[in-house]
Amino acid sequence: MKKRILTGDNTTGRLHLGHYVGSLENRVKLQNDYDTFIILADVHSLAYPKYIGEPDLIADSILQVAMDNLSVGLDPAKVTIFAESTVPEIYELASLLSMLVPYPRILRNPTIKDEIRDKELGDNYSLGFLNFPVMMASDILSVRADLVPVGEDQSPHLELTREIAHKFNSTYGEVFKEPEGMIGRVARLVGLDGGVKMTKSLGNAIFLSDDAGTVRKKVMKMYTDPNRLHPSDPGKVDGNPVFIYHDAFNTDKEEVADLKKRYVTGKVGDVEVKEKLVVALEKLLEPIRQRRSKYENDTDAVRGILIEGAKRTRTEALATLDLVREKMKLPRF
User: Fold this and answer.
1) Do residues 201 and 224 lie in contact, with contact meaning Cβ atoms separated by under 8 Å?
2) Which domains are present in the chain?
3) 0.70 exceeded by the pTM?
């Protein structure tokens, strides 16, 4: 029997290059070797104050994020894709698992603390926001996953998942595996503006669905070395967003090495470096656009994939929930 993966995305807008190197490409590589579940976490999306009043955006994003996953090369015959809200067993499981988590443990979660600080939430966050990590644990444990490809910022949530699984097993009896994480080859892709992370909300992202003209426009506006005023000035490569992207996406490593050598000696301008980055990105993005176009022209097929995914996931989650209730001596009359 194949080992199992669960991974996924919040449904707060289309996915971008940061998602690709953080998790998506690992999903594609592993889909033949693992029984893979992809969750479209629409309920999780409601945890953020920014989106609680945006039901239309979240609903539309379910379809958009599903197409993003399919367009990078996930095969619906091999993976199970579902919307979180269509599997109510996850909510019941989350409620039961939350009994095992001390409130101060959630407040110590570094991702929760970072989100409160970075989004300037103050004390304007919901109980659902604090419960986000427990809900994520329930997503993962509902299908008893072995492996979870995640972005670096989600690692603390996965660590809590392992703690919950261990505590449940030691308290009530063996049900859950303690899943391992897999971080993408670029743990956290910087934004186009040089910010610490590419993110939709800051407008510093290249989306997988961006057309060629938009990609080019965004790349040509990218931050480089702020101290370099002329092409003949020696430039800095380390920490330079354009070269970070070359390292991540340009498969011609000889070209990258040549650009770096000329850049630090003032023998190449930012324009040429960016032009070559556009070419490298288009090699990745054009096939993705072509696959996405097929699904955009047949959204009923995408909805069918999600319906079938929900059916299969509910079967698995219900089996897990029955085991949990049995171990906890909770009656089913």
Assistant:
1) no
2) 4-189+299-327 (3.40.50.620), 210-291 (1.10.240.10)
3) yes
